[in-house]
Amino acid sequence: MNFLFKSRLLLTQLLCVSLSALWLSACATDQSDQPAVLPTAAVPVMTATATTSVPTLAPGIVTILPPATAAPAVEATPQSHSVGDGETLLGIAIQYGLGVDQLIAANSDVNPRFLSVGQTLTIPLANETGDPIFIAEPTPLALSLRPAHCLTSATDRRPCIGLIENQTDAPASNLGVQYAVPGLDPQLAYPELDVVFPGQLLPYVFDVPQAAEAVNVVLSSAVLAGTANERYTQLEIAPSQLTDLEETALVVSSAITNPDLAAATQVRVALVALNQLGQPLGYRLLELPEIAPGTTVPLSAVLTVNPALVTEVIITAQAVRSGS
Fold first, then answer.
1. pTM over 0.70
2. Above 70 in pLDDT, residue 269?
């Protein structure tokens, strides 16, 4: 009986469990077809805004930025001047606020004594303020400048003659001499010949007021003539013979030979009479016709000077080689 009661109780409990499970299954909602809803995070809204990027530097750190690239400088173009009728190198230099030596240095291929109308000169550049930029003046070569000797004259001007001596081993050109008389502005004088070769004496001539008591001279320009041996022919000059012609004139006789294989053109000869002190007493410049290669031509000139005072006559010749 007790066993039967326990069996019925166990059966009743199993039946209740089964009925409870069935009820729960019927009452439950099937969510397998419903989409799963995931939790959403807040999404920030991005707004486009034009900003200027400013680098933030950490304390103690120095950032070196590359320098800004400057615009390339525009090179100035040298001015030019066309020589007009009656113009001189000194006048042109003054017009542009330059020194004559600076103008000569900028035009090394120009003979400063023989300018021609229409000839083009290079003028040193000017800066933004309009002031001239002075180019470096070349230091004159170590030539010897003999003091000028001024002669007496019946006019209000006295002629003065000096000598440039080339004691170097190279020819020199662009020669200039500055002379000054107390109370007057310095002036420039140029030799009649373009080049002075080693061992030669080259005369320079100028005039001063009759009342001038002293004249100071200084070599203002002389540059190395690197191509002189190619352009010029060095003529050979025979020893001169001096013949008195009355009391105020002297006849100088000599001969000139062209030893070159090319003809000598534009022949110019300078003669200077010296006294026993080496002071110039008289001067003469001659222009001769072309001298053929290997040819010797006679030379004769009259110097207006007191023959009794003359002890020596210096003869210097210059010729341009044909075809140079």
1. no
2. yes
